């Protein structure tokens, strides 16, 4: 299987000449134009191969380049050895992702796998693909516009898992009625973030006081750091008994703000996370971060590849033990989907999750900076 990369700030040669035929309509958020009814789809075969486009959303979260892309590439090569893969990462830029999608459609991709920067803005990309007879798999985030299939995690359950762990940690410290928590949610343009937030509120509301709450543009650790500094100023650092952080990157900024406010590692309130990034796992080992949510990316990527092959060939996707369910997008359109289960990771089960699954080795976690932690002493 050959792989072609569409660079983050460049498009393939020849795109400019074809731009008039597939022009961008710039109005607020740029969107792709559509023409006429959806085109009839061509059926391909695995033996002959076909062209798949993979569009990932950002670089701030380590998972996309380190895991999602290579796992997807490996699975596609297994399911369709003669397929060609084009890849692009939009680096959190809505217009750039639409340009990358435009370039892939101009190249003649036969199926798109799309993890949207902005799910609403992605509707134009989906509509353009449909007008050319190109099916779309929504990956990790449910893009609008009527995608064909969708694979992700049960995102409301992710928020519930985070909140349950946070509430349990606060209760263990006996602080439930003595202070308040801060909620630092994900990007307002990411529908997954809204689901995480809703799931967390289902657990936390009425159980503990929420002193401050923020939505964080672009999942930015720097923004999360500034938001946490504001919460410390508003509430007082001693009144904060826990922090709901929607992911690990933001948790790093939050912990930095707490440390700058004079909180020792031993006195840090429990801070949640998500994505099981290596730095997050190391912070958990060191007692800085309480937990993260591990979402097994390899099965998600494999299912996305299986869906892409199925849509291109007209066959059933190879889903293993998973099953298709129906979900609704923001416009109320029904989409066939697979929703995987998230897992809470604390210091007590690092070895049984990310280590046993081969995501990280003990050597990768227990570098010199973390070798003296209790976890690393026991693990080595």
From TrEMBL:
Keywords: Signal. The keyword Repeat does not apply. It comes from the Bacteria. One of its GO terms (cellular component) is outer membrane-bounded periplasmic space. One of its GO terms (molecular function) is carbohydrate binding. Residues 1-32 form the signal peptide. Residues 53-316 form the Periplasmic binding protein domain. Pfam families: Peripla_BP_4. It is found in: Cell envelope. SUPFAM superfamilies: Periplasmic binding protein-like I. InterPro entries: Bact_Solute-Bind_Prot2, Peripla_BP_I, SBP_2_dom. The keyword DNA damage does not apply. This is D-xylose transport system substrate-binding protein. It comes from Nocardiopsis algeriensis. The lineage of its organism: Bacteria, Bacillati, Actinomycetota, Actinomycetes, Streptosporangiales.
